[in-house]
Amino acid sequence: MTQPAAHEPHDEFLWLEDIYGTGPLDWVRGQNARTEAKLVNAEFAGLEAGILEVLDSDERIPMVTKRGSWYYNFWRDKANPRGLLRRTRWESYLTDSPEWEVLLDVDALAEAEGIEWVYAGSAFLRPPAGDPDGGYRRALLRLSPDGGDAVRIREFDVEDRAFVDGGFDIPVAKSYVSWLDADTILLGTDFGPGSLTSSSYPRSSRILRRGTAPAAAEEYFEVPADHMLAFAGHDDTPGFERDVAVDMIDFFNSRTHVRRDGEWVAVEVPTDVNVELHRNWLLLRPRTDWTPAGRTFPAGSLLAADLERFLAGDREPAVLFSPDERTSLQSWSWTEHYLLLNLLSDVSSRILVLDPAAGWAGRELADCPPLHSVEATGVDDEDGDDYWLVATGFLTPSTLSRGTLGPGAAGTGTTAVKASPSFFDASGYRVEQHFATSKDGTRVPYFQVGPKDLVCDGGNPTVLSGYGGFEISRTPAYSGTVGRSWLERRTAGGRGGVYVLANIRGGGEYGPAWHRAALQANRHRAYEDFAAVAQDLIERGVTSRERLGCSGGSNGGLLVGNMLTSYPHLFGAVSCGVPLLDMRRYTKLSAGYSWIAEYGDPDNPEHWEFIRTFSPYHLLQAGTEYPETFIWTATSDDRVGPVQARKMAARMLGLGVENVWFHEALEGGHAGASDNRQAARLQALSNAFLWQALTR
């Protein structure tokens, strides 16, 4: 437990910051029992089972990643709750029942080793040139012992389906790794005292050769301790092999370097310009307006330059995309010859295809229905111009299609490959988009999903969700669990639930300016936006204060925590998950220091003056009528950590607020769950609480 500075506000619940202490865990178990006694009953069991059926469904799309001629997938279901790493061939994948070759059974591994492993990803070694099968044999697997961000990295042989005897094996830590060659990796990890940043991430990347202990690895790239993290990786693209290092200064500022003649050469752009290297191309996305050589490139645009010419001093990039007030760039992806841009226009998807060989000439794909989310990504940027297309909507189950790009308007179009099933009857519902007016006059979009025959008399149980941070966009997406646990439920009077998603500032729905509008001292704008949506729902008669709940996790937990403390008159219930809530001490807890760029530094007196206005833990006041509140977290969350949730619930109870409920999963990491069973339990608890609070 970190001790407070003398000038910090009194905190009577610091003892709960001892995450694994006997006293705090006894308190947690007591609160869990209290909450479960309230929520877990026969109706809850049916709700939980229905959610788990969705999560475990064998009819879900097994999304794949192409490596050589194999298609890899990680899969969890009822029989394999911790999951299977597996692969198949394309012809088999096209069938209704692909023949999967199981490479690693994580449940069997957990049982054999006595550790509840959670699979967290892999990094494959490129096969030797001329491999007739294109097979990727060796991989570095990331395995978390508890679902947290800290992982053990182990070398795995895909053909032998076994960990390599004497292979690379990095102890549990927040580590980053990249293959340099078959016997060498670039590694960032906890190398001992002084090797981590203030954000708890590696501050150096080192060269580790096979048979060498991590402590003896050779220093390769290092950043100051007060930066967020250091990363060095090897680009193994044939003909463009190079080492690249990134100094992550904070969440939104970084410096990219390329290794040349034994030295690191910086890509000279402002630190808030996102940088990507792809073959000979340098892609740049400024987060604020950038004016090199007298020419201004607006925030959120995408630029391209030849890397060698740029490093030599040519600062005249081509403009691939320039945003407008309605349209933003969300992501991009390469095929062998083309660049795909995924855009949002008033939070509906658009996709552009650009051709570098034709001077970046572009055309739009016509596969994006309104009020839906559609994303295009290259299947294999070294092997043809095929692309995946994933489409989803609130009432439209996800579909996976594959298409082929060609010059001009040429191409085969897309062919449906897989489709998710319907988990609820959507025929009686409709999706609407509305705009609320925030306190400063800004139009804030939101989606409303509810019955076609919705009666707007204020009587509909409604849950409002949002995030509003880190330039993360919330877009339409099908959720069988939302359908079953909220839309299809009925009150005693026969009313169904209404689900609302708010696209507030702080997110990325309209690009970096939309995010920047709610940074640090302007954080209140995100909360004003969310409150404006709540007020609009009430004024339109969709719901009322007694029937309106809100739900959010992580930064979204901070969002709804501020609804609880600053807008209690708008909500009848609040579900607050894995949240930031103590903004005085958040930088001293888990990975909190890395978010100073988003929220500000509470140790800076000027910053604390505005931070304290959105620190729910410090905004609680005795005698206030707070809405019903459910606060949930996970002991093993090493990103936000469980202690802010604990302290918030404890302080509310200490103030005599009886309608606050707390639950802490004893495993599961920042997601609160490490398998489908835990996820179903968590979702059922939150939805049971909201339904109970809003329909009584």
From TrEMBL:
Keyword Protease in record: yes
Pfam family, one: Peptidase_S9
GO CC terms of this entry: cytosol
Peptidase S9 prolyl oligopeptidase catalytic domain segment(s): 493-694
GO MF, any single term: oligopeptidase activity
Residue ranges of every copy of the Peptidase S9A N-terminal domain listed in the record: 10-400
Biological processes per GO annotation: proteolysis
Highest rank taxon of the organism: Bacteria
Keywords: Hydrolase, Protease, Serine protease
Family matches, as PANTHER family: PROLYL ENDOPEPTIDASE
Protein name (database record): S9 family peptidase
Upper taxonomic lineage: Bacteria, Bacillati, Actinomycetota, Actinomycetes, Micrococcales
